[in-house]
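Project standup — Tuesday

K.O.: blocked on the structure for the chain from last sprint. Re-posting the sequence here as requested.
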Amino acid sequence: MRLRIIGLPSAAIVFLGATAVASGTAVVAGTAGVAGTPAVREACPPPASRLTEQCQLLVGTVKPTVARGQLSAVADDAVTGPLLPDDLRAAYGLTQAAKARGAGETVAVVEAFHDPDARSDFDRYRQMNKLPACVAATGAGCLTVLNQAGRGWPLPVGTAAGWQDETALDSEMVAAICPNCRVALFEAKSASLTDLGTAENSAARVARYISNSWTGPDFSGESQFDARYFNHPGVAITAASGDAGYGPGYPASSQLVTSIGGTYLDTAGAGRRGWTEVGWSGQTTGPGTGTQSGCSSGEPKPGWQTDSGCANRTETDVSAVADAPAGVEFYSSARDCGGVCKGYGTSVAAPIIAAVYALAGPPRAGTYPAEYPYLHRAGLYRVTSGADGSCEASRRYLCNDAYSLGDGYNGPDGLGTPDGTAAFAAPSSGNIVSVINPGTYDLQAGLDYRLPAIRAYDSAAGEPLAFSATGLPAGLSISRSSGVISGRLPAARLSDAAVRVTAADPSGARDTVSFRIVGVRSLTGAYRAGRGEVALNLGGLCLDDRGHRARTGNPVQVWRCRNDRAQWWTFRPGSVPGGAGALMTGGRCLDITGRARRAGSRVAIWPCTGYGNQQWLITGAGRLYNPASGMCLDDPGGSRANGRQAGIAPCQGTRQQAWVLPASPITSGVAGRCMDDPGGSRVVIFRCDGTDAQAFRLGLDGTLRIGGKCLDVTGGSADDGAPVQLRRCDGAPAEIFQAGSFGMLQNLGSGKCLADPRDAVADGTQLVIEDCYGLPGEIWALS
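H.V.: unblocked you, prediction finished:
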C-alpha cells in the first residue's frame, strides 16, 4: 500500500490508509498489443489530511487510435473511440428504459468543492450526444447546484480542478444512462468525510438515488459513521469501491450502501449482448490501478450478503464499466481537461448504477436498495474472468472473478453488471424487513450491560417488529419489543458467543444478522506498568510534576527532560477493551482541572477518581485523547520554554501534541497474556511478567519498538494468518500499526489486525495478522 491516511474522530479511533495511485503519476497503459492507448493520470491527489476522501477518477487526454474489440478474436470495427451514451445504454440493455423512464426522478451526486462550470459542461455534454435539452418546467434533463446544506447559496468558495473533472463526469454519466432524470449536485466545502457526509444527508432529503465517486481507507471502527451519514432507508446510495486494486475502501464497504466495482468493457463482435466484460485490473490504465475489493476491517456483514469466506462485509455488490480501450467520454472545462476527456475508474461505474436504480423505479420505504440485486440475480450479467490482485489461496473469490463460493458472487465485481433494470427494482409484493448488523461487541466479563437497540426497518410502515435471539451468553437477554440486549455478562475466563438476532413483522417477513459478543477479563488484571518519561516531540521537553510534589492540584508542566522522579510516569490502560486509561505519577493521576471540557483548560495532579477528566486514550502519532472533552493533551503554544503548564486543545496532530510514552507491556484480551520478544525475530504471546522482553514502545510513526527493532509483518504479506516478526525499522507500511476500535491494532500494509491465533493461551504462540473481527486474541491494551 502506498498511502497513509490517519484521522481522529470524536471516538478517538485512528484510521488506516487505503491504496492509491501516487499523486501526479502518469500511468502507462499495460495492455499488450494496444497501440496508441492514452496515458492516464489520477484526477485528484491523495488526501493530505486525516479523514479526507479522494475522488476515484483517472483522466486521459491523449487522442486514442485503438479500435475497440481487443478482447475478441473478431474485432468490431464499427465501434471505435471512447464510449458514448448510446454505447453505455446498449452494453447494459438500457436503451428502451432510458427512452421511456426517469421523468420526475432526481439523482443526486455528492462532490467536494465548487465547479463553476458544472451547468455549462453538463449542457454541452448533452448537446454533443444529442440528449434531450433541459425542460425548465419539469426539471427533466436539468442540473441543480446546491451546497452541502442543500441550499443554492452560498456555494463553496474553493475550486479544485480534479474534483471539477469528477463533478462533470458523475453528472454526465447519470445523464447518459437516464437522460430524463433531474440531477442535483451537492457541493461540499471540502473533501473531508464530515463535509461530504453533511452533503450526503442533505441529498437524502431530496433524492431517492445518490452517487458517491469518492473513497478513503477501510478501517476498524468505520461503522460509527454509517449511522451519521449513510443510514437512509428507501434511498439507493452507490459508492465507488476505489481504483487501487485489491483491498476494500470506505464508504463502499458500508453495509448500508451499494458497493460498486469496475469492469473492463469491450466489444465482443458476437453473441446476444455484443460486449465482453472482465474484471478491471488496469488493462488500459496501467499497473497500480484496478477495482478494489476485499473483506472489510470495520463493517459487519448485512443479512442479505451470504459469502462465507469473510465474516465481515465483503466489497463489492455489483459493477459497471471502469475501463475500456479508449475510455468513457465526458466533457469538462477544468484547466487540466479543457474539453473532451476520457474517464476511467470506479468513478465512472458509481453514477451509472445510481442512474440504473432511477430507471428501475422508486425504492420501497424502509428498505435498503443494496439488497435488491441479491433478490434479483437473474437480472445481471456475471463477470467470470479477471482479477484485481492476489489474495489467499483459500479465498481467491475476494480478488479473482473466476472464483466464487457457489453462489455466483465474487469480490471484484460482486454479482455482476446490469442486464436491464430488473436487478435494481424493489420487489413488487411482500414486506421486507432489514436489520442493521451491529458488529462484534467486545466487553469486559462480569459487568452489567445495556447494549444499544438492534436497529431494524420494515417496508410496511407502522407494523411492530418482534425481536428474538439465539446464542446469547448466559445472563443476557433481548427485549422482544425494542431489540435491546441487556443483563450481566458472565465473569468467565473468556467467552466468544456467536449470536443471531431476527426481527419479524406480523406478516412473517423477517431478516437475521449474525454477530459476536466477546467477553474478556479485565485487561489490567495481570498488568505490570512500565515507568519513565513522557517526552514531547519538541526540543527535549517532558511532562513534569512541578517540584515533584505529587499533591492535589499541583500543576503539570513541560520541562526539559532530566529523568528524575518528577518525570516518572506510568500509563495504566483501561480494563475494558478499547477503554481509556490513566496517566499516573506518585500514585496520583493526570487530571483536567475542574472537570473542564473547553480548549485551554489546564492539567494537574489529583487523587485518582476514575472520572472522565482523568481518562486518556493512546491514539496514533502520540496523541493522548480525552473522550470526555473531545480534546488532546497539549503543550500550549508549542513553547520550547520550561515551566509552561500543559492543557487540552482540539486534536490537530501537531508536534505540541506528540507524546512518547515509556516502554510498557501490551496486554492481550486473552487473560494474563502479553506481547513478548523471546529473542531473535519471533514475537509471541506469553504470561505477563513485567520483564524487558515485554516492554514495547509506541513510536510517533505508528511503529511498535523493542530492542531497536520494529514489529513487522513477515514478507509484507497481506495473507490471513501471516506471522509477524521483529526486524530493522525502515518505515515500511508493514511495520506501522494503529489503534482501532475495541483495542484492535490494525496493520497499515495489510489492513489486517494483530492477533493471538485461535485465542491461544500457550506461552510462545507465534503472533499473526488476521481479518479484524474483534475476537479475544485481537484485543490489546496499549500502555
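K.O.: great, moving the ticket to review. The chain has four domains: 26-424, 433-520, 538-654, 667-781. The radius of gyration is 27 Å.
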